[in-house]
Amino acid sequence: MRAASLLLASLVATVTAACDDPPRFQAVARDLDEALLAVGGTASDDVWAVGADRGRGPLVLHYDGDGWQRLATGTRGDLWWIAPVPGGPTYLAGKDATILRYDGATFTRMATPGLAAHTIYGLWAAAADEVWAVGSVAGRAGFVWRYDGVAWRDVPVPLTVPAVDDFGDAVGFFKVWGGPDGRPWVVGGRGTALRWDGAALQPVPTPADDTLFTVHQAGELVVAVGGGTSGALVERTGDGAFVDRTPAGARLLQGVWVTADGDGWASGAGGAMYRRGDDGWRPAPHDLGLDVESLHATWIDPDGGVWAVGGDVVTAGLDNGAILYRGVPTIPRYAATAPPPPPTPSCPAAEVDPVPAGSIARRWNEQLLGAIRRDVPRPGVHARNLFHLSVALWDAWASYDATADGYVSTTRVAPPSDLAAARQEALSYAAYRVLSHRYGRAIGGPVSQACFDGFMARLGYPTTDTTTAGDGPRAVGNRIGAAVIAAFADDGANEGADYADTTGWTSVNPPLVVDRPGTVCVDPSAYQPLNLAAAETQNGIVLPSGVQGYIGANWRAVTPFALRRVGGAPYFDWGPPPTWDQPEMKAWVTQVIRRTAELDHEDGATLDISPGRYGNNPLGADDNPGHPQNPTTGQPYPANVVPRGDFGRVLAEFWADGPKSETPPGHWNVLANQVSDSAGFARRLGGVGPELDPLAWDVHLYLALNGAVHDAAIAAWEQKREHLAARPITLIRYMAGRGQSSDPGAPSYDPGGLPLVPDLIELITPASSAPGQRHAHLARHVGKVAVRSWRGEPGERGAEVGGVGWIRALDWIPYQRRTFVTPAFPGYLSGHSTFSRAAAEVLTEITGSPYFPGGLGTFTARAGSYLVFEDGPSVDVTLQWATYYDAADQAGQSRLYGGIHILPDDFDGRRTGHDVGLAAYAHAGRYWDGSATP
What 3-state class would DSSP assign to 593? Predict the structure, then answer.
């Protein structure tokens, strides 16, 4: 009996001691690929943790009391915060103005007032139909939105909110939270705190100087945390003032949560945890050896369990994610599933042989166009590859011809009995060797190589046969392929070092940070690379990793086709390049701003883009008198009236050279192939003489056309390197920074500023920025210059438009993707204009007519599906050209609508292309008729 009593007492003591032991922290997850940025829920068995997107979509985890599940949102971009509503739904928000609504089965992206530049850092949901969101643009220009169950709407920010710097933008906002009274708090940069009073946001002073990252309220207690090099923690009870309660020695604090009974937890740099007690906030070590930059968020569940999440979130890595938990019971670990291995590169079935009815030259040309689309857009590199493939195809064809001269390989081969089969085989091996050499290691190279291999297999040619001996077609092709590769290995392109600059160029100007207003220039007339880095750390750190390089700085040194240099002079000299301070510059930049304003497809303006009303320009002009009639039909061209904004947007995107395009040299190959495919088209050189078979026509065409675009790249990039002229984004922002040049008696006057133009370029005044007026949203910038222009890429490009509106001129951006903005090389002169006019000259000469077959070339952009930069067009838009010159002119004009060039870039590019194209056609003719080789 005594023994039993002692045993019972021992068990009671053991259990009591166990119950008295405080809960310990456990690492539910660590070393995740993605940082976790927010944690929250409605119960201890309804827990959410969300975070970064490292290539698989944002990390969204849910714990249901039994285990963890990763949910796929179907969206891309980091998610910074979460707001679960008891009974549903759950709101999630983050990058690209993204707010998602999860109903328990489906994630739905909500329409917001924001653009892709807006990052939402904080959410608070009082109910399903009362939700608040806050954020910033690269740590500045803080915004507050409110959802009422119908739509998200902008909430005006008090003008008394501190500015982040001398540009006057409000500080960024990072979190929002409210109590049962429905009056949320907003915190942000420079110790800012705002409170909703039921009608407006009102500033509330705090003792903090650094950024306040997170705020939480429970009952009468409000706590906000933040800091910079050291931490900051401020508290307020009831209607009292905020007081500093920062724990001694605390570093940056980013997460905080308090309860109605006064308990509270905070987290921050180095994975540190702090707990609120009767004597203030004290360190609460977890002893987990956690190696993270910061625990970014903290939450206390209704059962008292403490959750904290984070990772490497202070810098832009957003990886090394972790989840901590303190409470009872033990939470099962989250075991991250490894991403699936990358698929074995394979060629899409439709791309193995896209045009099986074409000649063998055409089919290899299509292979190259596919490889260009997969690679990064380097116009000079791709023009060179188009030309060198054309040389290989030509030389293989010419080796069996008694008259034609080869370009690299001049050896003739006795025609075999089956000449067509021999030519197909020889051309294929020559093309395969050149393309494999050029694109095997390029971006998208494994897929391109799979396509080359797949096409050879379809033709029945083993790629492993590298024989070069004898006069068999396989040997002929392999020899020619090797000869072309060797002939141009040291042609000045620096192919062996992936075309790296050999000139030692360095920019005189610091990079222009696109997400920050204005620009800083040593020489505003000089090219300025862009910093496209996405400022996704909460305090807007912009890293140098996003700075553009200079594509093609050495391209003037590349061996041309027909161009000939006189002494050491440039191939072309059109006089001095445009400079920011010459009198014409104001008109040039105004024209660009006007073009971007005209991208508004809802302004009611229309344009007749029929060839009867648009086109037929003299060289180097945009008079657009139109053509009196179609020479094929003898009838006037019918009207083609479209919304002006849709025309401008389609024009800008149709000719764009961004990712997944053929770039302008390849684009003109596409157009040339369409010409050759036209019904009833007669393949006669110069439009006269005997008709050529499709293969003969194609090899003649490609040699001249791609010799021309290759030379166009050399000529244009020589001018770019010679003059290093600025792009519109530099010119407009710099001049806007100086002010306005029209009214000496008005604010911001500077002779070097932008001209004032009613309804386009205006001063922001107290009257124009009053509530309800056109500049109301720019009221912080009274006295500065505003422009009516495209606002920027929308958050959801497939369903939204950025739209045209009044923006600060210092923030002007071109109509381009946010990840592209402006090409990575100088402006003057336009590569598009040079490529396009050169190609148009060749097509005019080789067909014997400037007109497209039938007197009309067209392309139709389908409503609601064609545009990539934003949703649109609103109606079907059919681009029409009577002549190749009309198409080339529109290519040049497109760069003004797209905000990429000013007028002299375009016109001098057209002039250059004119000379380049005629010279290339004449030079190609010498190889056609056998007069090239004595």
Answer: helix
Nearest to 871 by CA among 806, 812, 794: 794
Rounded-to-integer distance, Cα 395 and Cα 858, Å? 33
Burial of 472 (0-12, 13-18, 19+ CB in 10 A): middle
Amino acid identity at 851? Y
Instruction: Give the whole-angstrom CA distance, residue 89 versus residue 106.
Output: 10
Q: pLDDT digit string (tens) for 539-550?
A: 344 444 578 889
Rounded to an integer, what distance in angstroms lies between the CA atom of residue 653 and that of residue 891? 10
Other Cβ atoms less than 10 A from the Cβ of 611: the count is: 27
Half-sphere exposure of 16 (CA within 13 A, CB side): 6
| CA-wise closest residue to 286 among 302, 271, 276, 305 | 271
Q: What is the mean pLDDT of each run of 10 residues along the chain (934 residues)?
A: 40 42 92 98 98 96 98 97 98 98 98 97 98 95 98 98 97 96 96 98 98 97 97 96 98 98 97 96 96 98 98 94 95 91 94 99 99 94 99 99 98 96 99 98 95 99 98 99 99 98 97 96 98 50 66 98 96 97 98 99 98 98 97 98 99 81 94 98 97 99 99 99 99 99 98 99 98 98 99 96 99 93 95 99 99 98 96 99 99 98 99 99 99 89
Q: Which one-letter DSSP state was computed for residue 239?
A: T
Token pair of 53 as six digits: 């997107």
User: Of 707, 699, 704, which is closest to residue 843 (Cα–Cα)?
Assistant: 704
Radius of gyration for the chain, computed over Cα atoms and rounded to the nearest angstrom: 33
Q: How far apart are CA 807 and CA 798, in angstroms?
A: 23
Orientation angle between helical segments 694-723 and 903-928, nearest 10 degrees: 140
Distances from the Cα of 631 to the Cαs of 204, 609, 853, in angstroms?
74, 18, 10
Q: Cα-flanking dihedrals φ and ψ of residue 649, to 5°?
A: -70, -45
Concatenate the DSSP letters of all residues of 712-765 into one string: HHHHHHHHHHHH-BPPHHHHHHHHHHH-BSS-TTSTTB-TTSBPPBTTTEEE--
Quote the tokens at residue 242.
């905020």
Please calculate the CA angle 491-496-498 and round it to the nearest 5 degrees: 105
Q: Write out the DSSP string of 759-800.
A: TTEEE--TTTTSTTSTTGGGGGGTTSEEEEEE---BSSTTT-
Give pTM, 2 decimals: 0.94
Cα gap 394→391, rounded to integer Å = 5
DSSP letter, residue 122 = E
Which of 712, 924, 701 has its CA nearest to residue 830? 712
Do 28 and 323 meet the contact criterion of CB atoms below 8 Å apart?
Answer: yes
CB neighbourhood size of 874 (10 A):
17
Which sign does the torsion angle of CA 482, 487, 490, 493 carry?
A: negative
What are the two backbone dihedrals, phi and then psi, of residue 856, each rounded to the nearest 5 degrees?
Answer: -155, 125
CA dist., res. 126 & res. 84, Å (int)? 10
3-state secondary structure 553-591: CCHHHCCCCCCCCCCCCCCCCCCCCCCCCCCCHHHHHHH
Is the separation of the CB atoms in 306 and 325 below 8 Å?
Answer: yes
| Cα four-point dihedral sign 562, 567, 570, 574 | negative
Closest alpha carbon to 209 in 221, 186, 193, 195: 193
Nearest residue to 170 via CA among 125, 199, 215, 134: 134
Q: In what order do the strands lie in the sheet with 319-326?
A: 25-32, 319-326, 306-312, 294-300
> At what angle are helices 585-597 and 884-897 packed, to 10 degrees?
90
Q: What is the rounded CA–CA span in Å between residue 301 and residue 134? A: 23
Question: Using CB atoms within 10 A of its CB, is residue 303 exposed (0-12), middle (13-18) or buried (19+)?
Answer: exposed
pLDDT tens sequence across 780-829: 999 999 999 999 999 999 999 999 999 999 999 999 999 888 999 999 99
